[in-house]
Specification:
heterodimer; A: about 850 residues; alpha+beta; 22 helices; 19 strands; about 60% helix; B: about 130 residues; 5 helices; about 20% strand; globular
Chain lengths: ~850, ~130
């Protein structure tokens, strides 16, 4: 697709080149002052008209008065063809003076002299105006169309139309028969116009350039052609008298002898060669006819002239048309092959840019400039990179063989300073540059997409073909622009790659980027570090290959978590989950090591995921250590609480002990009686067992609270915990004259937790509450404990009727916060740490009716 | 002095203590009335032929001291014997001052019998 579009562009440009070139050709060489130029033209026209008249007079076959060829009219037509219409009057005036000079000597009356000049001028004007109207101001004859219009207007219309007037003048002034004069005039003028005018145009417009440009082989060929033509002409028109065995040898007709050379000229040298060869042939034929004419045969002379004119005209017309056709085809072929060559060059350049990436791109640009410069025949090229947010930078230069590399130094300096390069095509002339240095540049912006990515500066000192060169350079600029934009994008990508690598390296965690197919596309050094640690098997480490395979290998090597990780990473890649995180334990022989792994899905169109992997053994140990510390502290505070409850516990134990003792003594009395009352004895023993059981329960609760074990999490009924706490506290409340009230639900409120720790939380809160009420009158002391399930959590409320917290609400859970004379100030801090380790919340507030209330909220077990 | 025929009131919120003490005193020949709280006992006043009151010190709402104060005000002739498991000195001192005797839980048979006798003797001697 791209090649086709490029080809279309090339064709469009070529068309413009072709059209524009003609205009240039028509006007070049007119560089002198207008006045002087006009004078020269007029002089030339005057002299040429005069010489033409003499030649015309000489080309007569006596005794006939008619010229075989009459050049003046054609010369005037030629003058009009190569001058703009504004100067035609001056040309006619110059011709008139020559006309008067020539015709004045003949002795014709002045009206006839002027009238004949009028008809001559008419012919020239019709020819020049008609041809100009049909094909434009450029008098080239190098296409068939131009040649046919030339024949129509110059060769046919002008001589015939003017011929009518001419014949009329002669008939009116001399009384000669109208028809005869008309025939003589027309046949003569037609042949002259068709023969002489192309030759004149060739000699003035094309020959100088041909002589300058043509290489040696063509010279040889041209010389051969000229020699051949001369030989053939001498053979054809001045034949030697040959006899063979006494019989005169008859040569073929002269034109048959000439024809091969005329065709040679037409085929190999186009209209230029054909027109010159034809002019030579026609003039030779005419000269030959004049030389061989019998001077006494007037009628025969007239007939000979006519025959000669007709035969020569019939030769000239097809040959000129043929030559034009040949030239047109040759030019088309040349242009096409040039186009193809340029197109091939652009394709090669494009291909070389595609193949060369990174550092090689620069070399490619240099090579591209060299090829372009040589192909287009330029003198110097400078390629400037103008990537966004950067100083312009010259990335390649080229100077032609005729220039020293230093000739473009000034331009290179200028283009790399500041913002000297324009965004649109501009001609730049560098002031202060002198000598051999290139001062005049054409700057072509290089577009990558729609933005200007650089510039191509072109310098050439040869004006004639600059249009073609610049237009082709623009096409090349398109290719260079795209390549430059890509090179800049590559640079930017490399830069962002290096930034990415730096960021990845700076992250203390192992990071790997996964493509959608689970291949690891990029990993940092921390990730790779895991593979070097041979003491433990993890899921990190490798830097290439499939992460899923890595997991399988790790699973095989004895890491159970690897399989889970693999399944979840697959789910992340498949988009079934947005992310995944796990902390897993790898257990080598010596000690446990912990690792945290996360996978986050990349949401771009290409998918993939980012993996992180880090060792968390230290953190894990710190956590375990903190947990142990917390457990120990909790234990200490439980023991402390037991101290506070000692009196209460003694009371609780004392009651059943009293019952047991008393019952035992009653039993002894029963046994001492005769007979013993066994029924009473049985009742007594039942009571003793009951009392003992109650005492055992108290001891058991005590043992639970004094137990020093790690937390054991499991399903716990918060309501049962609250009831337990109330049992523990019942005696203490009695001792402290605190009334208790509970509102506990009949159905269980199940949470996941450690029973002993939860008892401790409520015990701490309740002891605190009772302590807070020690200052208020006994009858006002009320401890309320309630529990309910709400919003997926068990909410436990402990409320007292003390003085309230006031401004202490915020700090009450801080360690060492205490209002008591005795006490560590750790009770509430421990309660908070326990609640938080149960994923719960604890907070405090004053009740509007007085007193403080503490709230504990712990997530309910799902499904309970 | 035997306890036979004595009418003893037991005021204690602890049912096992009440039951065991009632059983022992009945075996020893007493007539026994039990009350689970101070309010229950005060509601039965005047004490109908009650010779001695065994009062638990620590009870919810109305304590043994409250009951004793009420009793001493209206029926000062009825001897009061305090029972307690407590150890704090203030309580013990007060019980000794305002009461006619003090026994520590858990108590021996002889301790309670001696205490009742002593209380009865103080009450009789006035």
């Amino acid at each position: 697709m791209q090649t086709t579009a490029a080809a279309r562009r090339i064709l469009a440009v070529e068309d413009r080149v072709t059209n524009g070139k003609g205009a240039m050709a028509g006007t070049r060489g007119w560089s002198m002052r207008p006045g002087l130029r006009l004078g020269l033209i007029m002089s030339a026209v005057c002299v040429a008209y005069y010489v033409g008249s003499l030649v015309g007079l000489a080309l007569r076959i006596p005794p006939a008065a008619t010229s075989v060829l009459w050049p003046p009219n054609t010369i005037l037509t030629f003058a009009l063809l190569i001058t703009p219409p504004g100067r035609w009057l001056w040309c006619l005036a110059a011709a008139l003076s020559a006309h008067l000079f020539v015709q004045g000597g003949v002795g014709w009356p002045p009206p006839m002299v002027f009238a004949l000049f009028g008809t001559n001028s008419l012919e020239a004007l019709i020819a020049a105006a008609g041809f100009r109207w049909a094909v434009g101001p450029d008098p080239r004859l190098d296409t068939l169309r131009r040649m046919l219009f030339f024949m129509l207007f110059v060769g046919v219309a002008a001589p015939i139309l003017s011929g009518f007037a001419d014949a009329a003048v002669v008939w009116w002034q001399q009384g000669e028969p109208y028809g005869v004069v008309l025939r003589r005039r027309v046949s003569s003028n037609v042949l002259t116009a068709l023969t002489l005018l192309p030759a004149l145009l060739t000699v003035t417009l094309r020959l100088p350039r041909w002589l300058r440009k043509t290489r040696r082989p063509r010279w040889f060929e041209a010389s051969g052609l000229v020699a051949g033509l001369g030989s053939a002409a001498s053979l054809a028109f001045w034949p030697p008298s040959l006899e063979l065995g006494g019989v005169p040898l008859l040569l073929p007709t002269p034109l048959v002898v000439m024809l091969p050379f005329l065709l040679w000229a037409a085929v190999r040298f186009g209209t230029s060669g054909a027109s010159l060869a034809l002019a030579f042939t026609v003039f030779s034929a005419v000269a030959s006819a004049i030389g061989h004419a019998h001077s006494d045969d007037r009628l025969s002379a007239e007939t000979t002239i006519l025959a000669l004119q007709v035969s020569l005209t019939t030769l000239v017309v097809p040959l000129l048309a043929f030559a034009a056709l040949v030239e047109e085809r040759y030019r088309a072929r040349t242009r096409l092959s040039e186009r193809l060559a340029f197109e091939a060059l652009l394709s090669r350049l494009s291909a070389s840019f595609v193949e060369s990436g990174g550092a090689r791109a620069r070399q490619s640009f240099a090579e591209a400039l060299e090829q372009l410069g040589a192909f287009l025949g330029l003198d110097a090229l400078i390629l400037v990179d103008r990537a966004a947010r950067r100083q312009p930078e010259v990335i390649a230069t080229w100077t032609g063989p005729a220039l020293a590399a230093s000739a473009i130094d000034d331009a290179v300096r200028t283009f790399t300073v500041g913002n000297a390069l324009p965004d649109v095509e501009t001609s730049i002339s560098l002031p202060g540059v002198s000598g051999d240095a290139m001062a005049d540049w054409r700057v072509l912006p290089l577009l990558g997409g729609t933005s200007v990515v650089g510039a191509l500066a072109v310098a050439t000192r040869r004006a004639p073909s600059v249009v073609t060169q610049i237009d082709r350079a623009k096409l090349a600029a398109g290719v260079l622009g795209e390549a430059l934009a890509r090179a800049q994008a590559d640079d930017a990508l490399r830069e962002s790659e290096s930034v990415k690598t730096a960021i990845l390296a700076a992250i203390p965690t192992g990071v790997a980027l996964l493509a959608q197919d689970a291949r690891m596309s990029s990993v940092n050094a921390q990730w790779q570090a895991f593979v070097q640690d041979a003491r433990v098997v993890t899921v990190a480490g490798a830097e290439t290959g499939s992460f899923l395979d890595l997991c399988r290998a790790a699973s095989h090597a004895g890491l159970p978590a690897a399989e889970t990780i693999r399944e979840n990473v697959e789910a992340v890649l498949a988009g079934r989950r947005g992310g995944y995180s796990i902390e897993y334990c790898a257990s080598p022989a010596t000690y446990d090591r912990w690792f945290t792994f996360t996978a986050v899905r990349l949401t771009g169109s290409e998918g993939g995921a980012v993996l992180t992997h880090s060792e968390t053994t230290e953190r894990r140990r710190a956590e375990l250590s903190a947990q142990r510390t917390r457990d120990e502290l909790a234990h200490v505070t439980r023991v402390t609480a037991m101290g506070e409850l000692a009196a209460s516990l003694a009371h609780q134990l004392n009651q059943p002990l009293t019952g047991i003792m008393t019952n035992a003594q009653a039993a002894r009395r029963v046994l001492a009686a005769t007979p013993p009352d066994l029924a009473t004895l049985d009742t007594i023993l039942v009571d003793i067992v009951d009392d003992d059981r109650r005492a055992g329960e108290v001891i058991q609760r005590l043992r639970d609270l004094l137990r020093k074990e790690a937390a054991a999490y499991g399903p716990v009924d918060v309501g049962a915990v609250a009831r337990d706490v109330f049992s523990l506290l019942a005696s203490d409340a009695l001792i402290r004259s605190v009334q208790t009230m509970d509102a506990l639900p009949a159905e269980p409120l199940m949470v996941i937790g450690d029973r002993v720790q939860l008892v401790q939380v409520l015990l701490n809160l309740s002891l605190n509450a009772m302590e807070a009420m020690s200052e208020v009158p006994a009858e006002s002391r009320l401890l309320r404990l309630s529990a309910e399930g709400a919003y997926g959590a068990a909410l436990i409320t402990v409320r007292d009727t003390g003085a309230g917290l006031g401004h202490n609400v915020e700090g009450v859970f801080e360690p060492f916060f205490t209002t008591k004379a005795q006490g560590l100030g750790m009770g509430l801090a421990i309660a908070r740490s326990i609640v938080e380790s149960h994923h719960g919340r604890i907070w405090a507030a004053d009740h509007p009716e007085g007193g403080a209330q503490f709230f504990v909220s712990i997530p309910l077990l799902e499904g309970s | 002095m035997t306890l036979s025929g004595l009418h003893v009131a037991i005021v204690d919120d602890e049912i096992s203590v009440r039951r065991a003490l009632e059983r022992l005193l009945v075996i020893l020949g007493c007539r026994v009335s039990t009350y689970p709280s101070g309010e229950a006992f005060l509601a039965t006043l005047p004490p109908d032929g009650c010779d001695c009151v065994l009062l638990d010190v620590r009870m919810p709402r109305i304590t043994g001291f409250d009951v004793q104060r009420q009793l001493a005000q209206d029926w000062p002739a009825v001897p009061v014997l305090f029972m307690t498991g407590q150890t704090d000195q203030a309580t013990l001192d007060r019980a000794r001052v305002v009461g006619d005797g003090l026994v520590f839980k858990p108590f021996d048979e002889s301790a309670i019998v001696d205490a009742i006798r002593a209380a009865m003797a103080r009450g009789v001697n006035g």
